[in-house]
Structure formats: C-alpha cells, structure tokens
Design brief:
- The chain is an alpha/beta fold.
- The chain has a single domain (3-200), classed as 3-Layer(aba) Sandwich (Rossmann fold), CATH 3.40.50.
- Helices cover 47% and strands 10% of the residues.
- The protein has six helices and four strands; from the N terminus they run ααβαβαβαβα.
- It has a four-stranded parallel beta sheet with strand order 2-1-3-4, sandwiched between helices.
- Helix 1 (3-27) crosses helix 2 (30-44).
- The model has no long low-confidence stretch (mean pLDDT 93).
Length: 202
C-alpha cells in the first residue's frame, strides 16, 4: 500500500469516527437519529397535531410517561413540582421500585431540582383522574397511552412544547454523557413550558 493510499484511508477513517461521534452527541445513537428524522417528517405532515391541541383550562396534573421511569419522566415530575404544579410519573416498561438514574439525579441537582428519593412506578398503577394530562416522550408512547386510556384523559408529546418542537425525545439511558445531559435539558425546558401553560389558564 502506498503512502498516499494510507493517508486517504486514514482520513476516511477519521471522518467516519467524527460522524459517528456527532450522531452519539446529538441523537444518542443511529436509531435515535432515524427516529428523530422520521418523527420530524411526520410532525411536518401534521401527524401529531392533535397532541398540541390541549385544553389547559382542564389540566390539574401533569403525568409524565417514559420507558423505565428512571431518566426522562422523573425529571419532568420533579421540575413540575418545583414550580408548584401537581405531577407524577410512570414507566411503560419498568419493574417498579427502582431509583432514578444517578446521572438524571445529578443533572437535576445541578439545576436545584431534587428527586433522589424517586422510585419507579409501573403504568398499571396509574389511575386516570379528571384534569390529568399524560405527557409522553416518543410517538410510540402516545400510541400505547391511547390504547390504554382512549379519550379518558388528554395526551401530549413532551417535545412539542420546546421552542424548536420535536416529536421524539430519544431515551438517553444507553447514551454518552453529552447526549444524556442534552436530553435532560430538553425535558426540563419542555416541562417548564408546560407548567407555564397550566398556570396561565388558572
């Protein structure tokens, strides 16, 4: 192999590594990248419009939903409570009784949002109450919630309340620290926006 070919291969390898790192830092994984773009296209076509049409005058409690109830939803619950809005969180795929992810707890602590006492709750423990707004993190969460509860309660997507709306907030559990904190920051920002909407209508 010539020196020139080795340099070309080395440059290509470096470019691939940089691109892979970019994906990990901004989307969590290749699956996160794909789901983000699919969700973005669906949102652009109006597929999730119904989840942004919330009657906040009827909302008394925010119910945050994610997969394991250890990273995203417990932070949303804690942020809402810190701002004086009744809230709780559940996991669609959790055994229940576990602590929140230490990285999520540390992120919250840096924002003066404390939830080290949190224990995971299974979705089958949830009892719909008048005034509940279910807040899913991913489109598949809303699909599951509709199957479980139909029109008994209002349902929305967390990312729709960001300044730059998104339909999909990737599960940060198996991601690097950069994306983990990025995702938690979006949860915090979207929850703050939801809290403002709830208080505005009271």
């Amino acid at each position: 192999m010539t020196f020139k070919k080795r340099n070309i291969q080395s440059a290509r390898g470096s470019q691939r590594a940089m691109f892979t790192q970019y994906i990990k830092n901004h989307f969590g994984s290749k699956r996160g990248l794909l789901r983000a773009y699919v969700g973005g296209a669906a949102r652009y076509l109006g597929r999730y419009k119904q989840f942004a049409q919330i009657d906040f005058s009827k909302v008394n409690r925010l119910v945050f939903i994610c997969n394991g109830n250890i990273c995203r939803s417990p932070l949303g619950e804690a942020v809402a409570k810190m701002h004086g809005v009744d809230s709780i969180s559940y996991g669609l795929d959790t055994r229940g009784g576990d602590h929140a992810d230490p990285r999520a707890i540390a992120f919250g602590a840096n924002k003066q949002v404390l939830f080290g006492h949190h224990k995971t709750r299974k979705i089958n423990e949830y009892k719909p109450m008048p005034g509940d707004l279910l807040v899913g993190m991913e489109p598949r969460h809303t699909s599951q919630l509709i199957l479980l509860y139909g029109n008994k309660v209002q349902i929305t997507l967390m990312g729709l309340w960001l300044k730059r709306p998104t339909a999909y907030l990737h599960d940060p559990y198996n991601t690097n620290v950069i994306f983990f904190n990025h995702c938690e920051s979006m949860v915090e920002q979207a929850t703050t926006a939801l809290v403002a909407k709830v208080k505005e209508k009271k």
